[in-house]
Every structure is written in structure tokens, then in C-alpha cells.
Amino acid sequence: MAKARVHIGRISDATDRESVIDKVIETLDGLAPAAQVIKSGSKVVIKPNLTADTRLWQEGIVTSPHTVEGVIRYVQQAGPSEIIIAEATACGLDNKKAFRENGFEEVASRTGSVIVDLYDEEFVSVPVRNGMAAKEIKVARRVMEADFLINVPTMKTHVATGVSLCLKNLKGVLPENEKRRSHFLGVNKFVTDLNSIVKPDLCVIDATVAMEGDGPMQGTPVHLGVLLAGTDPVATDIIATRVMGLDPWQFKCFNYARQQGLGVWNEADIALTGVPLDEVRREFHPASGPFPDVHGITLVDGGACPGCLDGVRTAIGRVKAAGLLDNLPPLTIVVGEKGVVTGENDVVVGRCLKRHRGKKHYVPGCPAQVFVISDELREMAGQYRLFGPKAQYLLHEGEDREN
Ligand code: SF4
User: Fold this and answer.
1) Mind listing the pLDDT tens digit for each residue in 206-253?
2) Is 367 in the pocket of ligand 1 (CB under 6 A)?
């Protein structure tokens, strides 16, 4: 007998609020009626993905407020005591503005639910047993104390993790410093550890509008009109990755989940119901591409992983979009463990080159984060850093649990 079930629903018009709400309820009912899975009087926490503090939910960057409203209407059938929409968005963004700009205040007011900025609340240290990257992780108390936790990511490809779905969306229950730490201990291993301590009861992947290419922010919207619901985050993510036409086993996150015995990873153990997978599958462009041919920039690739290579490529794209390429001096970017650094001004990218951390332009992280690489390039082009001093990203380099 299958150990997990994933139900696939279809939504024809992502902009029609009432029809999205109806289809979300129908899809979740297809998995299980609310009263069967949520106890009456429960405190329910819903965690969307709000990785933008501008109005971008129709671009596949942010979970659709209509989808979240549908989830709330479904939950209300079970008679909960409270429904909270909670988020701690990406470092450097305005969490309250992210809710406001993307229509979540209206959702809360229409449904009687409450928006909680997790950054305003307490985070508690939770021990990780047999962690791959961390011994303990600070997590929002509100999330740990929920009676019923619902994870509602949007479907994206992602330059650092390959895909961003349920597993990755849980980074939004961490304080900022813990988010930074995750990248310097190895984001895929850290996310695996995080998912070993935070266990959503229900996962709803919003692919009404998804994203392909350079997600999480610079990809291309995909009007897929699909919703996936499951109770096991690993199983739900694996099926979502198949819907994206990608092989889950090329991504570290699923291999680590399997290695750690986290969730249902064996596809033979996952039962699919609802719309057949073949009817909704669409080949997504992965978050990877050739290195751009930019005059004056040389890449030295010492066997780098796609996460760092794509991080560098995307960062150059950001600097180009800011009109700063001409302000850069001729430069060499070294990436990958076997990369040879020859010049004092080489940009040295990634934690596996930590032996060069004394170099002026060393960029930490595993993989190195796009915004830290682009800030390094901005600084070299004579501009201010958008995401704060580099020192705060170097803090965690002393923690040598992994890699
Ligand atoms: S820092 Fe090194 S090991 Fe880590 S993702 Fe980048 S290239 Fe790979």
C-alpha cells in the first residue's frame, strides 16, 4: 500500500479569485475533507512564500493570495480556533510590505484570519538529531506551537537548490541570521535539517503561476494552472518536480532527504489522485545556463557545482541590469574547489575555496548567494552594497559542521 498520497488539481484562471478559491477547496477535499484531518478548535498556521515586498504574486515569485484564501476557506470547514498567515521573508525585504503589496491584508480581513510577521515574535532553538549541517536551529515559536501547520509554497526553479517547493519554503520560519547561516553551512543540508524538526501537516504547492529559469526572483512566469496537495512534504515535492519535467534525483535536497530517511522519497510509495500527472506535466527551463560572454570578465571553473556557477551568472545579470558592467575593472572570477587563484583582486566565490578567505574579494556561502556575489561586484564597480556589510556573511565561516 502507498505510504503517501498527492492529489493534483487544475485551475483554469489564476486571476479569478472565486474560481481559484473553489478549485483549491475541491483539490484539498480530493485529498481529504478538512474535518477528517484538522481537529476542531485547532490553532492553524499557514506559511506562504512571500519572497518579494512588491506586488509580484502574478509573476510566480509569491504564493497567490487567492490560493491562500482557498486554503483558509477549506480549513474553516473544520472549525479551528484561529487561522494565522505567518511569514519571515528573505533577508533585506520588508515583511509587512510583502503581505500588504501582495493582497494578504485583504485576505485576512475577508476571512477573519490574522497576519503574523514572524520577525516580530520569538524564535526558539530546536535541537537537530543527527543533523547534516546544524546541531540546533532557531525557528519561530509560533510555527513550532501550531496545532496544524500548512506549507503553501509557490512552484519555482531555484539557482541555489534546483527547485523551491515545500522543503525550501520552510526557510521562511527562520530569523534573518539563521537564514544567512544556512547558506554558509550548506543550504541543501541545512534545509534537510530544518525539515527534520519542522513538520507541516499539510502541503499545498501553488502552481497557478509558477516560475522557470533563474528563480527565485529572476525567472520567467509559467501559467501552469495547477495545484498539488499532500501530507508528506518530500513526496509532494518529488511529484511537483516531475510535474516540472525535471528529475528530482539530480537535486541534492531529495538525495539528502533520502539519506536522512526524511519523508516518503520512493516514488513507488506515492499514490497519485486527481488530474493525471501526464496531463499537467510541462518541461521547465532549469535554473542553469551557459556562462555569459562579458568583455573583461574571465571565469576560472575549478569543478564548481551548478549552485555557485548559476549564482555567478545571475549576479552578473543583476549588475548588468543595474547598468554597472562598464564600471567594473577587468576581473577574474574563481569558483569551485580546484579553482586556482592567481591575482590579489580575483573574485573568489564559494565556501569550498575558504582557504582564500583572506582575499579582498572572497565571497562566502555554499552555494554562494546571488545577492552577496552581486554586492561584491557592485562594490568593485564603486557602488554601495544593497544587502549589508560582508562581515555579517563571514560570521558563520567558523562553523565547520559540514562540507
Ligand atoms: S561552495 Fe563549492 S561545494 Fe559549495 S556549491 Fe559552491 S562550488 Fe559547490
Assistant:
1) 999 999 998 888 899 999 999 999 999 999 999 999 999 999 999 999
2) yes
pLDDT digits (tens, 9 = 90+) for 350-389: 999 999 999 999 999 888 989 899 999 999 999 999 888 8
pTM, entire model: 0.86
Q: How far is the CA of 310 from the centre of ligand 1 (A)?
A: 11
- Cα angle at 178 between 174 and 182, to 5 degrees? 105
Whole-number pLDDT of residue 398: 56
Q: With CA atoms as reference, report the closest residue to 332 among 347, 349, 316.
A: 347
* Exposed/middle/buried for residue 18 (C-beta within 10 Å: 0-12, 13-18, 19+): exposed
CA of 189 to the centre of ligand 1 (A): 12
Nearest CA to ligand 1 atom 4: 366
Would you list the domain boundaries of the chain?
4-280, 297-398
Ligand 1 centroid from CA 306, angstroms: 8
Q: CATH for 4-280? A: 3.40.50
